[in-house]
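User: I'm putting together notes for a lab meeting next week and I want to include a structural view of one of the chains we've been expressing. I don't have a solved structure, so I'd like a prediction I can at least talk through. The sequence is below, exactly as it appears in our construct file.
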Amino acid sequence: MNKSGLSLVVFLLLAIIVISCNKPAESSGLFKLLSPKETGIIFNNEMQENREINLLSFAPIYNGAGVAIGDLNNDGLEDIFFTGNFVSSRLYLNKGELKFDDITEKAGVETDVWCNGVSIVDINADGFNDIYIAVSNPDSTKRENLLFINNGDLTFTEQAKAYGLNDDGHSTHSAFLDYDLDGDLDMYLLTYGNNEGTDLKMVNKKIIDGSGLSNDRLYRNNGDKTFTNVTLEAGILVEGYGLGIAVNDFNNDQYPDLYISNDFLFDDIVYINNQDGTFSDRSKDYVKHTSHFGMGVDAQDFNNDLLPDVIQMDMMPEDNYRQKKILGPMQFDFFNLSVKEGYTPQYMRNSLQMNQGEKGFSEIGQFAGINETDWSWAPVFGDYDANGSTDLIITNGFRRNVTDWDFRNYISEQLEIANGKGQDPDEVALAIVKKTNDLKLPNYAYTYNGDLTFGDVTADWGLSIPTWSNGMAYADLDQDGDLDLVISNIDDNAHIYENTLDQAEIKPNYLKVRLKGSKENTDGLGAKIIVKQGNIQRSHYQAKTRGYLSNVSSEIYFGFGENDAPIEVTVIWPNGQVQIKSPLLNTTESFDIQNAKASEVDSNQPINLLSGNLSSEYGLDHTSVENDYVDFYYEPLLPHRLSQSGPALTTGDINGDGLDDLFVGGSAGNAAYIFTQSKSGKFNKRALDGANDSEDTDAIFFDFDKDGDLDLYVASGSNEFDALSKEYQDRIYINNGRGQFKLGQNILPEMLTSTGSVSAKDFDNDGDIDLFIGGGLDPKKYPLPGTSYILRNEGGKFSNVTTDIAQNLQKIGMVTDSEWADFDSDGDIDLVLVGEFMPITVFLQENGRFTDATATLKLSSHTGWWNTMFLEDLNGDGKLDIIAGNLGENTKYDVSADEPLSVFAKDYDDNGMIDAIMSCFIGGEEHVLHSKSTLEQQVIRFKKRYVKHEEFAKATFAEIVPLEIRDGAYILKTNTFSHTAFLSSTDGYKAIPLPKETQIAPLNAIAKVGRDYLLSGNNYGTEVTVGQYDAGHGFSVYYDTNLNSFKMSRNSNYRASGNIKSSVSLTVGSETILVHGVSGGELYVSKVK
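Assistant: Thanks for the context. Below is the predicted structure for the 1089-residue chain, given as structure tokens.
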């Protein structure tokens, strides 16, 4: 498969010459690899490139083939069908005890066309399973799909044309489902284009009218052994390059929905069933971002909340060497243009979309630890170790490494030479390609940890043998009570893995469920199975099309580990009828739809997506507009934008009517607004006159002139103006007593520095309110510290006393939040700060002077990208504790005290610009964080040091940026990205993490209502190889004084979605509402009960 945005000739040929690994000896573990001699299965999907089918003429040449499992002769044993690309497909009859006979020729199922995905299904309701194969080929006369009808005697007759299913598009795979719930099985056909009419290096206009050349198809079963193409009338209209399809009921309305995983820029599609024979693409409503090169996909409930989740594959390697070989320049222009054209943000890594019910999906792949598995194909959920949790196995590998930047450059040079010599460039390119291989890699196996994360058990499970693997399916092939594996490989024998759980000293408990559906849907496709054991519920959706190009067993498998408590199984059939049994463990229980009954309780309450935003209810409709300034154009090495930290919010009674009013800051070039609350509970909006050219980063209402009304301080920040620009001057607006504001003059000292935070308090106890101004950054010199100030109020005019009373404060760091408080309970006011690349920092006041006590309080060892904090005595010892919001753990950066993320900043090429070179640890070794191209984009000298990506990829950080080069650099390190509470003790402060569920997104705001702490955040302003942080929908936690830890408030109705930067609580009548500032979006309002 070509995987880039170059022209077909160039970007298909991105390979390096790597010697293929020799096949290792069999490994031990949960799975035992059986030899072809043991099983009788000798199938090798061998590549045989030729002039007709090659990388230039046929883009998906190395995408591999599928495998399907099903009982074809009704003997109770499941048989195996492999599709072949250059080679014929093969059918293997299960003889028991993992022995198989090749009956391909006898059965009449040989193939001589390019076969992709395969489904085993009883398509004509005669009681025997049939075989449907998706076909593709550059020759349009050789790509009609195949349908082998079972004759009932282990022979088959090809009848695709008779059934109306001989589609001749570039078919990838099929999924059989009863989309209209009329009782019979219809068919969705996944389609993958072959670059016909599409320039994949461009941001093409989205085609959503069904006219796209690679539009998928939907075939309706007519009930008379024929099918009708109803694609357009059913609303299947969005063009895609489909590689994966998952069927499930995402909104719990009993009707099957579809998740379509698409390659390249083509958006994934979430087709929601409208219950009237049509579908609507609701991808924009359900997902915030997806994988970019979407491959295989699976949809099942992995975290036992009875909601189906989605796992999708991409091609990001795990190790530094392979990452640096394939990562090119940061293509922000391409990304930005694609978003403006209506495409969903996409990132090159695996995605795990966790179903959040009415909130849609939260993508947590990086948090879960499954985001980097190299060029991956089939993800398949299943309880492979029968311990009661859902595991994940992923196949990967690509025959030719077409993502190597050195080879891209090499092939370009060779094509230029060929053109100059009058040679056929295609012939030259193919000759080079055929000499290249990619490195074989092991597949991946993960076990679920029960906390939204997975652990890598590939070696422990015996799956470490390197291969080029594609399709995969599971089944209990030997009927011994565990799941065996079948994997199709390129240029290698298929792998049959025996699960050895039955040989364990302590055998885990299990249950197998067999469904006997209606005559037209014998496997009960579309049924939901819920198993309850004690207070644990688990669910499974009956869909056989799983992973990539493959079909799994129709038997449903549940493991229970050593738990032998009684179980209850509920089957909800597609027609809504229900069947409940309490079977014994370690058995196979059959459920027959004939014995099902109408449910007395509606077990399918539809889940409708709701925004949860109540802004209109209160007259708070307001969109905070952001301009198009792109920090990365000037500073390509930045980890995220520094120019979009607003909108700032603050609240207070500005007109003395006893009602809370609201200020919403503006971005550069856009006005700020005042919202005045009326007695009806609605807010009236008006623009604030003043400095619209500035970026408002923080604000506070306070009575600086002691005239009895609230004045307004607005901080100016951002990174988009040059240093010392007038736009950085903070402002004070004077209240006339009636809530009308006028910009004050000559009240503040000149401070042409970028502000990140402002806090007000009478720190010197002289009766008027003073200010702390936290320096956010040194503009366009990341990560040099901003300039912070303590401003003393002297009769309504402020003077800078920072150097007089707090010598080390002025350049303390990049401050994001601050608060005055009596931190040490000695009766005077101290100062607490958080910031990027900073620890929680405390300046204690004594005798009117401030001293940095961070180390003394044992807070200095926790450096993070802290965004916000909340101070309160949590443990009741009379001292303030700290809740601090950080980046969170749903990030590619894995940091610790021993393996921090570091930045080494200096002017490396003497051009007057600070270059923020960053490092991180990958595989226990410190490496440059940036790609070669991105590093060179800002620091040209490195282009001369490393000509090829190969040598750059092999080098460590110390080799790329040795001591003599980074001598004199400004160095910062961060060792935690976890949201953390710091509790006072007799020996300084102790860190305790906030609950795992909160760690899936950045936190930018913390509020308290009742006992609950309401946390909100996200950050969409990241660089494009990292990807936006958007999984947060608001979190509600409380502190359990008995357990001395935080817990999730499970019954909370709190919701906060979007790119939230700030929040404030307001009283409206008898209600408490939270207003959230959303960067580039509408104010988000929640009502807190």
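A couple of points you could mention at the meeting. Residues 593 and 1051 are 36 Å apart (CA to CA). The longest helix spans residues 405-421.

User: Perfect, that's what I needed.
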